[in-house]
């Protein structure tokens, strides 16, 4: 009989690294802790605000700070993004820029911060990455020698400074709300401090031994001059909260690097984030106009109309944010796809399963011809101005795909946003519509003839052997564009991923390269599949054979629904429905 392992011998789990902040000072009292040297261009001192133990290295610290610099929107919901102006790497040796005495500058970044809110303004900021050997600090000879031989010798700093001269006139030389009200802000990395172990004299003949504590990360600031004394306490609390949030993010990212965090989902692979965000803001601003303004009577109101006139039972703001974002993404992608036709699909767009019709309305209002269809009319359809082309129609995929005429207009672009059981049929529709392309955003898991229930799915190797690599004109790093359906050392599991592989398999059989994008929309079902490129090496005849085989095997499992309302009555009476 196997004896259970004694409790005392079981190794306890490693303690989880967590932020343990220590408030050091407010911004009016210099702390006794050693601070950074004064900047050569500023006569004010640094004030340490908050610190915490850290379990990561200097290189992780620097990388975490660079991540924060690249993506400030992760720190504040009031920041849209940062546009890079320049990024100058100075090499491993760095250079002494005489700005921070004793430190070497390794990298100079200049960025432009863009606000998300209209009443804020953009701001230019300089970011510099520094380090210095800690053994150069005034310590006794024995400790200095230990520091020189230690891997924790270097101290680091990343300094952020707003460029006040570049602020717009509307700012009146004031910093925007989303930025801490400081002249400069520094992220400091202080390596572990060796401490003598306190051996007896006869035991210390070979020299003192040292043990190390954990490293420390700290945030220092240089406050704005001439701060109103009556507001000092309030300002101190706000600055502390801002610094605490920054420190927490830095600690989370640095600790994640130690644990080997590997990013799983990458955005903006098929369309540049900047282009989509700028257009999204433009569309959002356009549809925020007041209905009482005659000049904008043709447009819906972004907030007021949706809140007061929305006729559906679903959340109006969710639908509006989502559909405006999808419209912006589509328009940006179309500009490249259809450059020869003014960025518009030559055959128009077709929203299959358009639901409330809002996406059709938005695209139509922006000058993109097309129509939407659904099984039943929604209450909101009649209230759009101008009136978009929305049709009540039931689709019978097997009948459409075996007819002499193509299912949809030639050179059209099919949109399937949560089209339910029609989702897997979209690639087949596109394959039988000359010149068609599509965006498929799946939600519920359906096969061609029923529910998709598998937890695993494998695409046959002979299908993966086709040329399915990324497009040469992709806006993203080609290393990030490895097809999501390619075999990986660590396979993703779960029904959602299996269903995506199933859709990818169908898409390839229908002659399209499935390009996946994690769309920036307020939905957990945010993966879109773009079918715009044909599979090289797969002839039209082979595609037709593949689709015929799918229809023969699964077509009998489809039951066409009867559309609701007058269109359904016409069909039941033998008439042609819209």
Automatic annotation (TrEMBL):
GO biological process, one term: tRNA methylation
Keyword Cytoplasm in annotation: yes
Top EC class, one word: transferase
Region (Disordered): 1-20
InterPro entries (alphabetical): SAM-dependent_MTases_sf (IPR029063), tRNA_uracil_MeTrfase (IPR011671)
Reaction(s) catalysed by this chain's protein: uridine(44) in tRNA(Ser) + S-adenosyl-L-methionine = 2'-O-methyluridine(44) in tRNA(Ser) + S-adenosyl-L-homocysteine + H(+)
Predominant location category: cytoplasm
Keywords of this entry: Cytoplasm, Methyltransferase, S-adenosyl-L-methionine, Transferase, tRNA processing
Subcellular location per the Swiss-Prot or TrEMBL entry: Cytoplasm
GO cellular component: cytoplasm
GO molecular function, one term: tRNA(Ser) (uridine(44)-2'-O-)-methyltransferase activity
Ranges of biased composition (kind: Polar residues): 1-11
UniProt-listed Pfam families: AdoMet_MTase (PF07757)
Chloroplast in keyword set: no
EC number: 2.1.1.211
Family listed: Belongs to the TRM44 family.
Function (record text): Adenosyl-L-methionine (AdoMet)-dependent tRNA (uracil-O(2)-)-methyltransferase.
Full protein name: tRNA (uracil-O(2)-)-methyltransferase
Lineage: Eukaryota, Fungi, Dikarya, Basidiomycota, Pucciniomycotina
């Amino acid at each position: 009989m196997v004896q259970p392992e004694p409790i005392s011998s079981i190794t306890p789990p490693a303690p989880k690294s967590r932020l343990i902040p220590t408030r050091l000072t407010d911004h009016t009292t210099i702390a006794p802790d050693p601070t950074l040297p004064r900047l050569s261009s500023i006569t004010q001192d640094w004030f340490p605000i908050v610190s915490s133990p850290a379990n990561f290295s200097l290189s992780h610290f620097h990388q975490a700070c660079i991540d924060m610099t690249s993506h400030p929107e992760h720190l504040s919901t009031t920041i849209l993004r940062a546009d890079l102006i320049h990024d100058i790497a100075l090499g491993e040796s760095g250079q002494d820029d005489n700005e921070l005495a004793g430190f070497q500058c390794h990298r100079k970044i200049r960025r432009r911060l863009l606000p998300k809110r209209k009443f804020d303004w953009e701001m230019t900021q300089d970011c510099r990455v520094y380090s210095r050997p800690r053994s150069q600090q005034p310590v006794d000879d024995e400790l200095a020698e230990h520091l020189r031989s230690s891997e924790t010798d270097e101290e680091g700093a990343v300094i952020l400074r707003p460029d006040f001269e570049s602020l717009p006139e509307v700012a009146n030389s004031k910093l925007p709300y989303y930025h801490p009200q400081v002249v400069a802000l520094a992220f400091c990395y202080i390596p572990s401090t060796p401490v003598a172990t306190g051996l007896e004299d006869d035991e210390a003949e070979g020299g003192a031994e040292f043990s190390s504590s954990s490293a420390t990360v700290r945030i220092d600031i240089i406050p704005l001059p001439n701060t109103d004394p009556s507001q000092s306490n309030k300002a101190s609390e706000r600055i502390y909260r801002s610094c605490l949030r920054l420190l927490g993010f830095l600690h989370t990212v640095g600790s994640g690097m130690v644990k080997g965090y590997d990013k799983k989902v990458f955005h903006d692979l098929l369309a540049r984030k900047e282009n989509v965000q700028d257009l999204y803001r433009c569309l959002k601003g356009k549809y925020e106009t007041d209905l009482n303004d005659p000049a904008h009577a043709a447009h819906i109101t972004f907030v007021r109309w949706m809140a007061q006139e929305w006729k559906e039972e679903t959340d109006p703001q969710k639908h509006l944010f989502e559909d405006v974002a999808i419209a912006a993404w589509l328009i940006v992608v179309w500009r490249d796809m259809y450059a020869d036709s003014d960025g518009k699909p030559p055959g128009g767009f077709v929203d299959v399963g358009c639901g409330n019709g809002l996406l059709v309305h938005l695209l139509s209002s922006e000058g993109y011809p097309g129509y939407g269809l659904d099984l039943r009319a929604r209450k909101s359809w009649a209230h759009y101005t101008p009136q978009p082309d929305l049709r009540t129609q039931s689709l019978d995929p097997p009948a459409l795909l075996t007819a002499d005429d193509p299912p949809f207009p030639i050179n059209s672009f099919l949109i399937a946003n949560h089209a339910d059981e029609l989702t897997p049929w979209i690639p087949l529709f596109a394959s039988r519509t000359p010149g068609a392309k599509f965006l498929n955003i799946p939600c519920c898991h359906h096969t061609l003839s029923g529910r998709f229930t598998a937890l695993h799915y494998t695409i046959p190797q002979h299908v993966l052997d086709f040329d399915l690599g990324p497009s040469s004109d992709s806006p993203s790093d080609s290393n990030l564009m490895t097809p999501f359906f390619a075999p990986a050392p660590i396979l993703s599991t779960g029904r959602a991923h299996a269903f995506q592989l199933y859709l990818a398999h169908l898409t390839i059989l229908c002659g399209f390269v499935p390009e996946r994008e994690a769309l920036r929309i307020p939905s957990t079902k945010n993966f879109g599949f773009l079918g715009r490129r044909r599979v090289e090496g797969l002839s039209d005849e082979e595609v037709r054979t593949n689709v015929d085989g799918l229809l023969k095997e699964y077509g009998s499992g489809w039951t066409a629904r009867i559309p609701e309302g007058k269109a359904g009555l016409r069909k039941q009476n033998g008439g042609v429905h819209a």
